[in-house]
């Protein structure tokens, strides 16, 4: 897979700025909100991204590349075209020499194109099921020995970076059940009704956090606690926070829900050892932000990788970063370096935007 001259220069510039790795450090690439579209501009940007990851990893090992949700754009609106774009993106990613993983975004099920005018009510027919998304963009990850999918057709799992004593938990923040009402509308729309299913919460407590290493970093599409998107419905977020805080503090936890659509019963015992959750990292905002969410965890978001709606939302410094096609600013990717010994997370930017670093408490 070839790279353009400007992407080659940007890759070399990125490599020079990466922090020197210390013992126990781990590095991964994060590319949220690509909103892939089947055109030459986007194909070029993705080829350059993959080429950059491959080249960076030759000298500065990257554990994995994570596509942070909203991987495919909702244009054109037809379900069949949406799936075709997913397949085209997967074909390009097959040239990536490092493991690549996906998160599910709120645009990835295409349900927005079933929306009734002026409402958040979606009619069935436009949506792309989790089963199809898993087959096209998730199933290949079963081949990676360090990745542990929650199960077939489930869009969440975890990655163990043993050399750094770190586990990455990849969550599905749009994990609502597919229920069709008698009038042909969906009870929950993947576009607007963001949720953690009861099954996902049980898996988190009983599997992903069970016998976890010293450090756990969470990755998902929509920021935790919807801190930057307060309009989002967030079913199950309180349970997620209670599980995570009990895990960090080394406590026992017993919670349940009798909601028929989101039922769970969790009896977890994290006593005996405390753990570190250095950060919870997400996309969705299309901008660079950092805050401590309502559960007290460091929350980081990354600028959108695609040109869709780019330049609309400013970062924390009030700066807008617009995309310029066929240039070093055509996309955006963070190379995250977690350094436990330095108590620091570094985000080195390839493309549009700036480098950032986050001291850990």
Q: Strand tally, please? A: 17
- Residue stretches low in confidence (pLDDT < 50, at least 5 long) are none
- Our count of domains comes out at 1
Class by helix and strand content?
alpha/beta
Distance between the termini: 41 Å
- The largest beta-sheet arranges its strands as 4-5-6-8-12-14-13
Q: What about the largest sheet? A: 7 strands, mixed
Beta-strand content: 15-25%
Please tell me how large the radius of gyration is: 19 Å
Mean pLDDT: 94
Salient structural properties:
six-stranded mixed sheet, Purple Acid Phosphatase, chain A, domain 2, alpha/beta, 6 helices, 22% helix, 361 residues
Q: Could you explain how this protein is built, in words?
A:
The protein is an alpha/beta fold. It has one domain: Metallo-dependent phosphatases (Purple Acid Phosphatase, chain A, domain 2, 4-Layer Sandwich). The protein has helices at residues 5-17, 40-59, 79-93, 130-138, 198-208, 237-249; strands at residues 26-31, 65-67, 100-102, 147-149, 157-161, 166-170, 193-195, 215-219, 233-235, 252-257, 264-269, 280-282, 289-292, 298-301, 332-339, 344-351, 356-359. The strands form 4 sheets. Strands 4-5-6-8-12-14-13 form a 7-stranded mixed β-sheet, with no helix packed on it. It is globular. The termini are far apart. The mean pLDDT is 94.
């Amino acid at each position: 897979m070839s790279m353009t001259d400007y992407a080659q220069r940007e890759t070399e510039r990125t490599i020079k700025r990466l922090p020197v790795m210390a013992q126990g450090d781990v590095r991964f690439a994060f590319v949220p909100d690509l909103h892939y579209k089947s055109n030459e501009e986007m194909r070029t940007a993705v080829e350059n991204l993959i080429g950059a990851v491959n080249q960076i990893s030759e000298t500065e090992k990257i554990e994995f590349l994570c596509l942070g949700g909203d991987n495919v754009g909702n244009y054109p609106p037809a379900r069949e075209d949406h799936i075709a774009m997913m397949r085209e993106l997967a074909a390009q990613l097959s040239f990536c020499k490092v493991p690549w993983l996906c998160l599910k975004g709120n645009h990835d099920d295409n349900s927005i194109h079933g929306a009734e005018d002026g409402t958040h009510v979606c009619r069935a027919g436009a949506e792309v099921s989790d089963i199809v998304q898993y087959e096209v963009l998730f199933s290949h990850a079963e081949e990676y020995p360090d990745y542990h999918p929650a199960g077939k057709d489930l869009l969440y799992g975890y990655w163990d970076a043993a050399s750094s004593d770190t586990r990455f938990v990849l969550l599905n923040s749009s994990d609502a059940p597919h229920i069709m009402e008698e009038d042909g509308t969906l009870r929950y729309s993947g576009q607007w009704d963001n949720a953690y299913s009861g099954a996902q919460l049980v898996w988190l407590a009983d599997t992903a956090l069970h016998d976890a290493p010293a450090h756990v970093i969470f990755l998902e599409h929509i920021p935790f606690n919807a801190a930057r998107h307060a309009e989002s419905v967030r079913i199950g977020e309180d349970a997620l926070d209670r599980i995570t805080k009990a895990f960090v503090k080394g406590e026992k936890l017993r919670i349940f829900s009798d909601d028929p659509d989101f039922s769970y019963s969790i009896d977890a015992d994290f006593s005996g050892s405390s753990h570190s959750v250095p950060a919870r990292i997400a996309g969705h905002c299309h901008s660079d932000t950092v805050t401590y969410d309502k559960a007290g965890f460091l929350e980081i978001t990354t600028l959108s990788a695609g040109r869709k709606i780019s330049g609309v939302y400013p970062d924390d410094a009030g700066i807008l970063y617009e995309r310029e096609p066929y240039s070093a600013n055509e996309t955006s990717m963070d190379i995250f370096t977690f350094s436990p010994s330095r108590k620091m997370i570094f985000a080195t930017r390839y493309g549009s935007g700036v480098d950032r670093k986050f001291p850990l408490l």
